[in-house]
Each structure stands twice: as C-alpha cells, then as structure tokens.
Design a protein that fits this description.
By secondary structure, the chain is mainly alpha-helical. It contains 10 helices and no strands. The protein has 2 domains: about 1-190, Growth Hormone, Chain: A (Up-down Bundle), CATH 1.20.1250; about 195-220. Helices cover about 80% and strands about 0% of the residues.
Length: about 220
C-alpha cells in the first residue's frame, strides 16, 4: 500500500511539473511575440522587413517543430525538452543585442529553431502520462495571458528589450524544472520524416488550424 501511494505521489508531481512547464513556456513566447514588431520599429525597419522577419521565424519554428518532434519520438523526449529550454533561454538573451535588420532576422530564425525543439517532446511526455490534454493546454492559455499582461507593464517601465531578459529567465527556470522530468523511452521504429500519411489522416484539422493561425498572426504582427 505505501508503494502505491508513492507511485501516485510521483505521478502527480510529474503532472504538476508538466503543467508548470507549459505555463512558463507560454509566458516567455507570448511576452516576446507581440513586441518583435515594436522592436523592429525601434530599429527603424519598414513594415515589409518586419513581415519578412515574422515569415522566417514562422518557417524555422515549423520545420524545427516537425523534425525535432519526430526525432524525440525515436531518441526519447527528455533530451529534447532540456536542450530546447536551455537553447531558447540563450536565444532570448541574444535579442537584447540586435542592432539592425539582418541581426534581428538571424536571431529570430535561430530562435524559431530553438523554440521548436521542445514542444513535441513536452506533449509526448504529457500524453504518455495520460494527462487530460485539454487541461494541459489550458496552462498554455494561462501563460499567454500572464505573458501578455506582464509585457505591457515591463516594457513601459524598462523598455522593449527588457522583455527578452525576463523571457530568458522564465525559460531558464523551465530548463531547471525540465531536469527533474523523466522522459519517454525512444522507439525502435525506423525514423521517417515524410509527413504525407500524417497530413492525409488529419487534413481537416490541419487546414482549420492553418487558416486560423494565418489570419491571427497577420493581425498580431501588424
């Protein structure tokens, strides 16, 4: 009986850590997302260059999410969780030092790669623990609210670039917490990066999400 109690306690602790990771990641990502365009304006960039920065970031995030998610299924999720949060924390600090269009473009491209490393691993571990995914996703929504609400006050008091320092601290806290999360085991199946079957099986979901996020990001960027 005590052994079962310990197992239950460990399971609850893991679920709590995963919820907190989702919450922290969303705070950092959304705290920065709305202020990239403002940072671009502070650098004197025209609208089309800010648009290119947003496109490059979105594409790098897409491919990183896909490839790293597939790799984490084969090699185990915990490593990708840890590397993703640490790399993302470092890249948020680098935002403080951007000085022109090209530096912002490269920083956002690499940041997209960094932020795409951990989401697949995080959701894989959450799914393996049989958590309720709706509840798990709600912590992301809560994090976006806290990030956006806090961003206005922080940027007003300390400037736009301070948001990225705060985001780096939040992501580093997520990295420390990720070290305490046990991951899923890798798979012996052969790695396949062809998305054809997955897209065909879920085409209606992907189409609706793509349409929604395309419109939303157009508005959010400008």
């Amino acid at each position: 009986m005590p052994q079962n109690t310990d197992v239950g306690r460990d399971e609850r602790a893991l679920l709590l850590r995963l919820d907190v990771l989702q919450f922290l990641a969303s705070i950092a990502v959304w705290m920065a997302a709305f202020y990239i365009a403002i940072l671009g304006k502070e650098l004197g960039l025209p609208d089309y260059e800010i648009g290119v920065v947003a496109i490059v970031y979105g594409l790098s995030l897409l491919f990183s999410n896909y490839f790293c998610g597939s790799l984490s299924d084969v090699y185990g999720a915990r490593l990708f969780l840890i590397i993703g949060f640490l790399f993302s924390s470092v890249m948020f600090i680098v935002h403080v030092f951007v000085f022109d269009y090209m530096s912002l473009l490269w920083v956002r491209l690499i940041t997209g790669v960094a932020l795409g490393i951990y989401p697949g691993a995080l959701y894989a571990i959450a799914h393996a623990t049989r958590t309720r995914m709706g509840k798990f996703s709600s912590f992301g929504a809560m994090g976006s609210f806290v990030g956006l609400a806090g961003a206005g006050f922080i940027s007003a008091a300390y400037g736009t670039r301070s948001l990225f320092l705060v985001g780096a601290i939040v992501l580093f806290a997520a990295f420390i917490l990720a070290l305490q999360v046990r991951g899923t085991n890798g798979s012996s199946e052969r790695l396949s990066l062809r998305p054809t079957l997955t897209i065909r099986q879920n085409l209606s979901i992907y189409t609706s999400l793509l349409t929604r996020h395309t419109g939303a990001n157009m508005v959010w960027t400008f």
